[in-house]
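Fill-in record for MarR family transcriptional regulator.
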Amino acid sequence: MALHAAHLIERIGRLVQAEEQSGGLPPVQWDVLRYLARANRFSRSPAVVAAYLGSTRGTVSQTLIALEAKGYVERRPSERDRRSVDLALTERGRAVLAADPLLTLADDIAATAGKGATELARALERVLTAVVERNGRKAFGLCRSCRHFGEGSGASPELRHRCGLLGLDLSDADAGQICAESARPDAA
C-alpha cells in the first residue's frame, strides 16, 4: 500500500504541474512564487530559494530573471548584508498566487479527507522529514516550531517573539512562515 501511495503522490504532482503550465507559468516559477509567499524575511535570498527547491543556483537565477521580467518578483538590497539581495513578491506576484492551482488541490484534499486532512498533513510531514534527512537537506520548518523560537524582548508589542539564533525579535507573521534556519526542537 505504501508504494501505491507514493505512486498516487507522484501522479497528483504531475497533474498539478500540467495544470500550472496551462496557466502560463512553468512549475518552477510557481514553486518560487509559493516559496517567497511562505518564507520569512531571513529566508528570501536566491541561494536559500535554490536550497529549498533542491535546485541549482543557475536554474533559480534564470527563473528569477523571468519572474522579474513579468513583474512578479523584485530584488532588494539585504537589510542584514548589503552585498547580497533579498527577494520580495510584488503586488502582481501576490495577485497571480490568488489563482494558484495548488489552491484547487487543497480544496480537493479538504473535500475528500475532511477532518482527516490534518492527520494526512502530519503523516506527509513525517515522510518529508525522512526524505530531507536521507538526502542531507535543510529542514525549512515553520519559525514557531524551531528550538530557537522564544518570547520577544518586549521592546515592541507587535514583535512578541524572538529568534534566539539570529538574536532578532519577530512578529506573529514571521512566526508562521518558513525559515531556512529552522531547527527541530529535539535537534542538538
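KEY FINDING: The longest helix spans residues 2-22.
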